[in-house]
Amino acid sequence: MPVAQQIKSQLTGSSWIRKMFEEGTRLKSIYGADNVYDFTLGNPGDEPPAAFGQALRELANEPIPGMHRYMSNAGYEETRAAIAEVLAEDSGQPVRANHVVMTVGAGGGLNVVFKAILDPGDEVIISAPYFVEYKFYVGNHGGTTTVVPSLPDFQLDLDAIAGAITAKTRAIIVNTPNNPTGVIYPAETLAALNQIVEQKSAELGRAIYVISDEPYAKISYDGVTVPPVLRYIKNSLLVTSHSKDLALPGERIGYIAANPAIADVGMLVEALVFCNRILGFVNAPALMQRLIAKLQRESVDIAAYQEKRDLLYHHLTSLGFEMVKPQGAFYLFPRSPLEDDIAFVQEAQKHNILLVPGSGFGQKGYFRIAYCVEKAMIERSLPAFTALAQSLGL
Ligand code: PLP
């Protein structure tokens, strides 16, 4: 066998998104790209904001000597200081450069965190539906995941989380705004989660961390903003990236920020920096660190995303699809009209609509639409959704 048994079994069951991507390629070759409506990937279709191009040109015109060399494994001090300043302003906490570690995207950041905090057999609690990579990331570092359900409106079920904490629990992941539901957790929920964690940590005599995975934090609608986790949860580690808010997923730039209030935060950050090194990331991409330092208050056009959400939300609900109206990220997560979400997704394919079944996120009976696509494609897809609804007798 050329690969490890564990990887072989993970490979077979791992990715609905990848399967749908392959199906999309097949359909496009038959019907033409304009006649296939691909809502599978969370890959921003728009370009980074103009300020990014400007910063890139400035750097190219006036290169900084040594700018392509190795650096501290934590990343450039000036970048970490720029991030810390914004986090401190938003959260009211004394976040400084030495609480921030630059990472290879949010995915790299999560792996660094798990490497740093998990002992073999430690448990990490996740709420369904969830970003499917969490299970792999935790497993990479010897941990196991405990899945708890969310409430019917996809808010956190705090009782279920509290009930799932054991003497082996090391962390709870929260993802807000959420992939795949688009739901944002309000400040009261975070404050209540903090109480649970504080109480259980004291009872069990062991640190339990809340890892807030928030690459969509700047993408929120209807005047709602994402409450700063560093303000509400003492034992919090914020993990994020500029993959979504600056539309830079291919550039692999993100960071971890440790709450300054964590006991022994210095040792924790030292461990994070060490793990960034020994996982082979060494440091986050140098050029990107220079650029994003100047872009902490920039983002892609959020109003354009809101317009796309509204277009699809109104059309689909008028057809009889049921869903929670999401206030962030760029996903809709409607209930599948067929009990079997995989059968529904296959039915949608007959109308050249590509969707991901909820099963791919640990939540049967739903499906995900990623609307980070061209508005023109959404408009072209509307009659196909109408035909799909009619074919199902909605
Ligand atoms: N977390 C969530 C919830 C995501 O949706 C994604 C990417 O889609 C990531 C983490 C990984 O982000 P990155 O591309 O910055 O590694």
TrEMBL record:
One of its GO terms (molecular function) is pyridoxal phosphate binding. It comes from the Bacteria. Residues 37-381 form the Aminotransferase class I/classII large domain. InterPro entries: Aminotransferase_I/II_large, PyrdxlP-dep_Trfase, PyrdxlP-dep_Trfase_major, PyrdxlP-dep_Trfase_small. The keyword Transferase applies. The keyword Translocase does not apply. CDD domains: AAT_like (cd00609). Pfam families: Aminotran_1_2. Keywords: Aminotransferase, Transferase. This is Aspartate aminotransferase. The lineage of its organism: Bacteria, Bacillati, Bacillota, Clostridia, Eubacteriales.
